[in-house]
Amino acid sequence: MIYVGIDVASEKHDFFMMTDNGEVYKSSSITIANNETGYQSLCRAISEFCTTTNDENVRIGLESTGIYHQNILTYLVASGYEVELINPILTNMFAKSSKVHHPKTDNLDSQNICKFLIDHKADFKPYSLSLYNISELKSLERARFSVIEDLRKAKLHLYTLIKKIFPEYLKMFSNLYGITSLNILKKYPTPDKIVSARDASLVSLLHGHCKCSVTDLKEAAKHSIGIYFSSSPFEIRDAIAVIEFSQNRVQGYNDEIKRIVNAVAPNLLSIPGIGTVTAGMILGEIGDISRFHSAEALVSYAGIDIETYQSGKYIATDCYISKKGSRYLRYALFQVARIAWMFDDKFKAYYNKKKAEGKHHYVIIGHLEKKIIRVIYSILKNGSTYSIDKNLTA
User: Fold this and answer.
1) What is the pLDDT of residue 105?
2) Cα 146 from chain centroid?
3) Residue partners of 98: CB distance under 8 A and separation at least 6
4) 123-132 pLDDT, tens per residue?
5) How many CB atoms lie within 10 A of CB 252?
6) Among 277, 324, 329, 366, which is most exposed with the fewest C-beta within 10 angstroms?
7) How far is CA 360 from CA 63, 178, 183, 355, 365, in A?
């Protein structure tokens, strides 16, 4: 078996090759450029070493380094090589355990990755293009989170403007950000413009979630205590433009996430409370399910395990979840748990049992999160589907 260790950087990469019996390709690491020419020279070197050693079995390892590993990783997997993406914490611990004094250079790092592969040959987990799709979900979900935050800020900005310019307007609609409300504000952004508007024009816009009539709206505008300036119409229309732009972006992300989830793990959608967006967040944050040896390891990774504290005879009774893992995964699990118990009798029976014991609603939701993540582990591990139970009594 030939092992290739690659130390990844932004502009260049260093690689080192050796066989499991100690035969090396060169005495030291070789540097290649982070471009197609560099990748091709790496593949030629691997082919050359395969010919020299009469061994076609190749395993490649490289560390997970933010965005810098993604291009070469995808290139090598697409070229037919078995590649493992390694947690740099593991290789660092391995290097420190090998020597008391551990110098760090790109040359030595690639050699260390190579030796790590040999030492952990039984634990080798090749990366696949399906895992690339899961990484893609992680990127999409986190970018979506950012857009959602932009949308929240834009809505808050519009609310603040209306509160100052036309506070009475807020009582006219059940949803300030609904299509009807936004269309009226775009055409008649200030009270004086509503007062002077033709009734027929307002009637054509007033539909949907509206609590008022044209008369009510005009009366509120006529007697409004709002303060506005010549620039106020521009501010309101600009805030609405940002809202609509962000909403379109969110929908675009939702469509992309749905496409990937349906291709990678549609069975996850069988769990009550999980939609395509939530499924994408869960898949993206968990990554390769084979990394976890048990459901409890996944519970710990999510940071919803209980931290215990004991010192001598003292054992803490007020314990909280560790929150060590991904906050995005915890957020997704919370969203699932608060809905799942309403639609599945097994979860509902558990909820009612804990409620009868006097547990607070959110404490029970926390317990349900653990149950749900164990179900997720089983489904992803076995490729199975969840069956909603509708036969249990609460």
Assistant:
1) 64
2) 11
3) 112, 115
4) 888 877 667 7
5) 13
6) 324
7) 44, 34, 42, 7, 9
Q: Say if CB 193 and CB 248 are below 8 A apart.
A: no
Tens-place pLDDT, residues 64-92: 887 888 899 989 998 999 999 888 888 88
363, 319 in Cβ contact below 8 A?
no
Which amino acid is residue 391, in one-letter code?
Answer: N
Q: Which residues contact 76 (CB under 8 A, 6 or more apart)?
A: 39, 60, 83
CA distance 262 to 279: 10
Cβ-based neighbour number of residue 170 at 10 Å: 13
Place of tokens 């070229």: 79
Cβ atoms of 7 and 13 within 8 Å: the answer is: yes
Return the bridge partners of 15, or none: 6, 30
Rounded to 10 deg, the angle between the 361-382 and 295-302 helix axes is 130
Positions of the chain with pLDDT lower than 70, given as ranges: 98-107, 129-130, 208-210, 306-323, 389-394
Coil/strand/helix, residue 12: strand
- 106 vs 12: CA distance, rounded Å: 10
- Cα-to-chain-centroid distance, residue 380: 17
User: Residue 314: its pLDDT value, please?
Assistant: 46
Q: What is the per-residue pLDDT for 318?
A: 54
Q: Are 113 and 20 in contact (CB under 8 A)?
A: no
The CA distances from residue 290 to 123, 203, 255, 380, in Å, are: 11, 59, 27, 9
Predicted local confidence at residue 306, as pLDDT: 62
